[in-house]
Amino acid sequence: xxxxxxxxxxxxxxxxxxxxxxxxxxxxxxxxxxxxxxxxxxxxxxxxxxxxxxxxxxxxxxxxxxxxxxxxxxxxxxxxxxxxxxxxxxxxxxxxxxxxxxxxxxxxxxxxxxxxxxxxxxxxxxxxxxxxxxxxxxxxxxxxxxxxxxxxxxxxxxxxxxxxxxxxxxxxxxxxxxxxxxxxxxxxxxxxxxxxxxxxxxxxxxxxxxxxxxxxxxxxxxxxxxxxxxxxxxxxxxxxxxxxxxxxxxxxxxxxxxxxxxxxxxxxxxxxxxxxxxxxxxxxxxxxxxx
Length: 291
Prior knowledge:
By secondary structure, this protein is of the alpha/beta class. The chain folds into two domains: 7-66; 73-290, Rossmann fold (3-Layer(aba) Sandwich), CATH 3.40.50.10880. 49% of the residues lie in helices and 11% in strands. The protein is built from twelve helices and six strands. It has helices at 7-22, 26-37, 51-66, 73-96, 100-110, 125-130, 139-151, 164-178, 198-203, 231-239, 248-254, 273-279, and strands at 154-158, 182-187, 211-214, 242-246, 264-269, 286-290. Helix 2 (26-37) runs antiparallel to helix 3 and helix 4 packs parallel to helix 8.
């Protein structure tokens, strides 16, 4: 999905929020924001680009100004720590439900609220548990997912945010128990926003559950473009029966990949007007989109 006019203020708000977290003093923040506003995207001269590409260019400026390769490291560590603390309660909730798999899918989607794009601190893992019953997932989306899982033998699962990945782990545990399926979990290679890297996946114990791989993209890109991922991952995707993608950044980029049509589905929250409009849902509604 290419950027909409709505993306511009959203990205600028995120940029300022990160700057206030990562920088000291208004002079440094002002210098950074001036550099951001010089980017061609904000004069609407380049509309044929995705949000992850815009954020990549902003993140490179952030790294240059702060000298920090991972400016949100402390935020990410806190998100993972709190999610791990709530994990036993989340698992109990899932296993006691009438339909554990559906409940695990629901929590995995709601955990997409643990974000740095719409709010620098994002939602909390505790809110995911406390608010789950307020959100209803369309049954046709769940039914379609279950039907595809029955037929799948090789699954590639693209993760998104820190904290959220703990709920991905819970969902993958259910998938492995219920289906005869191999799962590869994919993270970012370089830090960007609060997206999970390979090290974050190891920290929350994902490698104890399934095979973990970084995408190999050598830049801080909060999305996925197949032409940039490592060769091994390309081959896994080609051999896979199903690809599951989490989050808005992966949605924005992977919906540009025609080769994935009929193979991929997206799990995320409708955090903005473009998502609500395209999928005819209300703000912050959970989405299962079969692409």
